[in-house]
Amino acid sequence: MKDDTITQKAVKSGEIHASRVLEMRAVSLKKRERALKALTRKSKQESRKVEVSRGIGAPEFIAPSSISKSPTAGILLAEGDSWFDYPLHDILKLLEDDHGYDVESVAHKGDPIEVMAYGDQQLADFTRCIEKVLRRGDKPKAILLSGGGNDIAGEEFGMLLNHKRSAIAGLNDKMVAGVIDERIRIAYITIISSVTEVCKRLTGSPIPILVHGYDYAVPDGRGFMGGWGPFPGPWLEPGFREKGFEDLEERVALVQVLIDRLNTMLADIVKLPNYSHIKYIDLRNTLAHGAAYKKYWANELHPNGDGFAKVTEKFAAALGTL
Predict the structure, then answer these.
(1) Which of 57, 85, 125, 170 reaches 20 to 30 Å from 197, CA-CA?
(2) Which domain holds residue 198?
(3) In terms of Cα–Cα distance, which of 273, 286, 282 is closest to 318?
(4) Least confident of 41-55, 242-256, 295-309
């Protein structure tokens, strides 16, 4: 009963968040409308000036060249983290280039799911994207949502571990439950409800939302481009080293438990009432995490080009069922 109450509060919080952002956008849209009206008036005035200067009863119009609408597999909207916003290659780039989709994205590398759920920026930008798509006379085929990885990995990752020499060595179950089964779960429900409410208010119906829980990362200490750049890393190895875990196979096993917990949580969310438009994609075991893992992983958290291509195939297959 307690979990149901918290879930209902999260759903309501998401709907309220959506209403607040839509009110903000309504103000912006009124400004846009005034600007367009002023532009129209100015255009008419300029046309009349041209008519007078030419002494012609009607303005001379040059018909624009016809532009054929390019074929597309569908329009997708995306909100998320670095799996949707990665240098050179990521899931969204490959959905466009390899699978023919058009993607409008507000994803930003490094964003935790709580920033997406409770901050106004990504939701406001996401709403702006829907408005642009609708103005073109189109409707999104689906919404892609990626998040949760940055809420686990990083500087505080070690907090999820009990020391190797402790009598309770390994993952701290209470900490893991608090982060994944409570904090991330509630943030996901909140953002899904926000996005769903925005779609219903703007399009009249929910739009399918696809979520995923990542694949089994390998905490080998590799960061981005050797440990420099926009998000250098490593994100997992320092926490393991701090807590005395030196063996890579042991680290891999613990990460697998974390990834399983995240995926189980997401698989349960899609079963909630009124969430029939949510689809969960299981990416586990898409990429190697044994001896050949470097063939598909660029670093601790991100696939390389070949790895992203394999992951994107899973997204394309799921989109093909809609």
Answers:
(1) 85
(2) 13-41+75-320
(3) 282
(4) 41-55
